[in-house]
Amino acid sequence: MQYRYSGIAGALFACAAAQNVASADDAVFELGRITVTAQRMQESAVAVADNTVSSAEIWNFDRNTLTDAVKLVPGVTSNFISNGRRNEGDISVRGFDRWRVPLSIDGIRVYLPADNRIDFNRFLTADLGEVQVRKGVVSVLDGPGAMGGAVNLVTRKPTKEFESEFQLGSSFDRGADYDGWFGTAIVGTKQDLWYAQASATVLDRDSWSLSKDFQPVVFNPGVTPPPSAQGERERQGSATEDSRINLKAAFTPNETDEYTVSFTKQQGEKAAPLGVDFYLPDGRQNCPTSANNPQCGGTASAPYQANNFWTWPSWDVQSVYWLSHTEFAGGAYLKTRLSYSEFDNALFAWDDGTYSSQSQGRSFQSYYHDSSFGGSVETGRSFFEGSTTRAAVHWRRDRHSEYNFNRPTAPQANTEPQQNSEEKTWSLALEHDWAVGSTVDLVAGISYDENERTRAEEYGTPTASLGLTCIAGSPPCLYDQPLGDDSAFNWQTALQWHYADDAQFGASVSSRSRFPNNFERYSTRFGMAIPNPNLGTERAVQYEVNWQAKPIEGLQLSAAVFYADIQNMIQTVIVQTAPQLTQTQNVGDGSHYGLELSGDWTVAPQLRAGANYSYLQRKIDDPVPANLKPVGTPDHLGFVYLDWQALPSLSVRPSVEFAGDRWTDVNGSATASYARIGRYTLTNLQVSWQPLANVEAVLGARNLFDEYFELANNLPEPGRSLYTKVRISF
Is the pTM of this model over 0.85? Predict the structure, then answer.
């Protein structure tokens, strides 16, 4: 079997289980992919043996949000409420978090200029064609910033003269009480010279429930009634509402060329669950006055970060973009992308758990409005047989605007002046691949990235020692923070040896950088930190060896061993003890290393099985503070499934997710103590009935045995949930 690839090293060599990842599904929007490959060794049933989560996998395993979908991929973990009181879903790709793993929609980068705190829970998947995950080597042609990997949401496109799909489902808590619904509609047409499609999806959750094993802790039962942040079942503050629409139209004058205009708009609204212990009305934890109590940070007098009573009335992203692909005589091609995106976000901080007043000094209404404008051009051609040279230029301008309405319900209410910031980022990349004989493929790429900050305003009291002064008036005032720029050179190379028709071996090395965001450079953390506008870039040099084979018909196995050397690591350092002040600095190095194993086996025509397992270790060299731990990622992670066609119209799909312990920050301060938590084994089940070729009805359960577990201290994850859904297509 011959393997020839067009496009990037990332698709070639990301990991053995995921090397050759182009879907055979024509409904996937090809221009929206961040990589293109000629073919894969075998079409896998699920992402246990692939780095791509297909629309079928999203349906079959009920993965309606991005945080759920990526967990099917080896080496990727996500936490539903990992960022605690912000109620944000985060992901980790081989130990690299959202700041180091960029997110794109159809190859268009989603970037939040203030802090890039992307909430992966807000991104729905039911209307997608696939979710791409890249690990290790991510092609330099795809743009800057992919230090630890990349995630790309690929929309669908129509394949018939008229087609449609409708999904509708409801979810229920462990007691079978209703807690939410979702719906998706997709309608499209494909004509000889053009196609058009519209899709909409909604996920509306009233709440989710805790495991029956959750027991609230009452520190002072003498209080009547005892102050509570959480009851025994329905999770307070867990309501969310998300929706997305996508409109797409394309001109396709021939079999190779395509010119597409697309519009995507998503809207989100959410609350934030509180820590599950009991608290006084002002947010202080109701701890005993004596005795050692780990729930109070170790002792009754130890510091503890109180709950933040926060809600997000809006978390909205919208984009309009142009994508094109043109091929010329002689094998040359030209690919262009042009996009404009906006992000609108509102965060409300309340006085207490009644969410009725905003009069205290810590209460506010914070408003963000961000915009991004950018584009890229990629071109390539083959100058001699067996090789292709490609080049790409990326440019993006990001603007951020914010202001606070402080203490809105108090007599001292005041509104800050609007603060603006702007940065520009560009990248120039070159990549070349060779086919060495009939069995070896080699690819190498280089890029140069540059980031320039052209505006950075702040409101408050400027630091005179840094030469900062008010633009007008006296403090508190609007002032300019120091500007600057940074640059980075990146390189990568990879080799793939097809030593047999059904087996291949590969190796790669990649050196990629990440520019710090404005939160890391400038945020004062509510007056508790000193800005560091000279913060430098991080870098990861990633090494990987991978293998993939089909030893017998119907069985596919893969393995990958990886090591990432992280340089110039960004950490928070205590620079003053009383009162405590911190600063973000480049003070450490570290490493991530581990292995990934996966297999997919067609046991019989009616039975398929698969599994993946990942082992990960993270290390911080000379951490500051000395006890700093890499939080949020388990040492062991896995997924096992069966797909049994019990009857021609009935399929049964049990699956098990498991994870080992991970480090968590116990009290949330810079002098944090740490604990090992998070071990879980979750059993899921989906039963599907297909009475007609175009109709499917489903009953399912998540966390079937109602296991209690926490992935962040004091913040439990959902217990058992039940769901039913139906899908009709025409």
Answer: yes
